[in-house]
Amino acid sequence: MSSKYKSIKEECYQANMELNALGLVVYTFGNVSAVDRENGVFAIKPSGVPYEELKPEDMVIVDFDNHIIEGKLRPSSDTKTHAYLYKNWEDIGGVAHTHAKFSCAWAQSQLDIPIFGTTHADHLTADIPCAPPMSDELIQGNYEHNTGIQILDCFKDKNISHKEVEMVLIGNHGPFTWGKNAAKAVYNSKVLEVVAEMAYLTLQINPKAPRLKDSLIKKHYDRKHGKDAYYGQ
Fold first, then answer.
1. What's the confidence (pLDDT) of residue 233?
2. Mean of pLDDT over the chain
3. What percent of the chain has pLDDT over 90?
4. I need a surface site. Which of 25, 91, 110, 195 has the fewest CB within 10 A?
5. Are the beta carbons of 132 and 156 closer than 8 angstroms?
6. Does residue 76 contact residue 43 with C-beta atoms inside 8 Å?
7. DSSP H stretches of helix in the chain
């Protein structure tokens, strides 16, 4: 394995193993990537390889224009989406995509996930957005690249910052998350799945459940992320 890319291959491998360990993937579905900004590349899981067979050296190195720089295997089929996000959001260091049950169910419903409780507010102050299904024209075009466009358009249309909301649902498809590194992207994938399940159960118990009130949203978010945060050590 090339020493030049050893670090991001290992980071990418560990993140993909964690995605599987957390039960967020189905068989070979799902992927995580880790970026190397200095060299203008990222490492990503190879397509269709069972997680138990993966090794760090199997991770594929790709540049932001989707050229394979290093690797003997084909990269994930979602590589172009990852590349588009890295190219347009220069502050992110990792991207994850899963087929987790409740996250996908909400994506299939084409609905944003409402902020019902403090678990949601501990991580973000807004509903988790669901991008509308892609147009036929975009589906028939450069599909995975256009998924990246779909995500950016959703954030623009809803006037949301990707720095504050590090997750999105793709209508009829599933979730993408990102963060400062690959581990944070996986963390956000798990948070999204837990919040998606809680929101589903909330609406089963009370279909008219109210959104969390603004004062509680602010309190719970600020105590973890505000300038006077006091959660943790």
1. 84
2. 96
3. 94
4. 91
5. no
6. no
7. 6-21, 79-88, 101-109, 118-121, 136-139, 143-157, 182-205, 214-225
State the catalytic residues: 122, 231
pLDDT tens string 159-214: 999 999 999 999 999 999 999 999 999 999 999 999 999 999 999 999 999 999 99
Instruction: Tell me the C-alpha distance between 110 and 82, whole Å.
Output: 22
Query: Rounded to whole angstroms, what are the CA distances from 186 to 33, 71, 72, 78, 191?
Result: 10, 23, 25, 16, 9
Structural domains of the chain in order of their starting residue, each with its CATH number:
6-225 (3.40.225.10)
Give Cα separations from 118 to 207, 216, 217 (angstroms).
18, 7, 7
CA dist., res. 124 & res. 122, Å (int): 6
What's the CA gap between 111 and 203, in Å, rounded?
Answer: 13
Terminal C-alpha separation, the chain: 38
**Which one is predicted more confidently, 233 or 140?**
140
User: How remote is the C-alpha of 188 from its chain's centroid?
Assistant: 7
> So what's the pLDDT on residue 232?
87
Please check whether residue 80 is in contact with residue 142, taking contact to mean a CB–CB distance below 8 angstroms: yes
Is 66 within 8 Å of 80 (Cβ atoms)? yes
- Cα–Cα distance for residue pair 34/43, rounded to 1 Å: 5
pLDDT band of residue 2 (cuts 50, 70, 90) is low
